[in-house]
Amino acid sequence: MELGGFDIDAPRWDQGTFMGRLWHFFSITDCRTALLPDARLDEAKALVESCRAGTLPPGTTKEQLYYAKKLYDSAFHPDTGDRMNLIGRMSFQVPGGMAITGFMLQFYRTVPAVVFWQWVNQSFNALVNYTNRNAASPITPKQIGVAYVTATSTALATAVGLNLYTKRAPPLVARWVPFAAVAAANCVNIPMMRQQEILNGIAITDENGNRLGHSQKAAVKGITQVVISRVTMAAPGMIILPIIMQRLEKYRFMQRITFLHGPLQVMMVGVFLVFMVPAACSLFPQRCSMAVSKLEPELRDAIVSQHGDAVRYVYFNKGL
């Protein structure tokens, strides 16, 4: 098959629709790609770069290119092209998230257990947030440390405080404490980990990718969408699963296998995350847009004076 002129960066599915983005993220969050060795990922990157350069190896098929791009998107940062650490990749969200969330939901009754699993979860989240940031806005080790400590403290304070407050509340309310802590921490963790984007602005471009400057308002919009996506990602498993478990635990057979409740919750969380990770990532376009009229006055005026009405929208990578 002749593949001359094949644009490997053109979306395989329409990114302007939710379903198109859903198929895209089902592809790149496929947890099977997390099992592949670095050498295989590097081969995929080399093939993608060869395609971009117009020097494809003879006999390369379109399906091979699509698979190489899937591996590339799952493992390499869209801004830098560097291979991301395994735990921080979205393709690791299902195995990593199901284990941590399952145990948070299982061990919610005692303060030491709450503290430990919230700390584990926030450590995981901090790494994911750092890995999937907009890499055009660097962050210092000190800022990473402050973000980590702040988010972890928020999660622990929320979880322990609500855990003590709900001692006399209905059992189901206590089971929802982990979600409240996770949601609160996400509202702190993500903005803190990406504070440089808020302070200095995020790189914006025109429709053709030409750099136009940096915008703080664009950064706030992108980060807000990421926070909403992350909370949505966790919500079904952490809200619905406690209801399911509370009803199941009334049955005698479940009371005989209490030692399996933890593994059972881990597996059930996994079922939720298989669908919710790509669905939550698909809520908003990865290449976010913003009207020039909504930008900071100085930046808006600079764009209008240089390009007139030719540029009405700016674009930026919102991160994941």
UniProtKB/TrEMBL annotation:
GO terms for molecular function: monoatomic ion transmembrane transporter activity. The chain crosses the membrane at residues 227-245, 266-285. Coiled coil: none annotated. It comes from the Eukaryota. It is a multi-pass membrane protein. One of its GO terms (cellular component) is mitochondrial inner membrane. Its main location: mitochondrion. GO terms for biological process: serine import into mitochondrion. Keywords: Amino-acid transport, Membrane, Mitochondrion, Transmembrane, Transmembrane helix, Transport. It is found in: Mitochondrion membrane. PANTHER family: SIDEROFLEXIN (PTHR11153), SIDEROFLEXIN-2 (PTHR11153:SF14). Belongs to the sideroflexin family. NCBIfam families: mtc. This is Sidoreflexin.
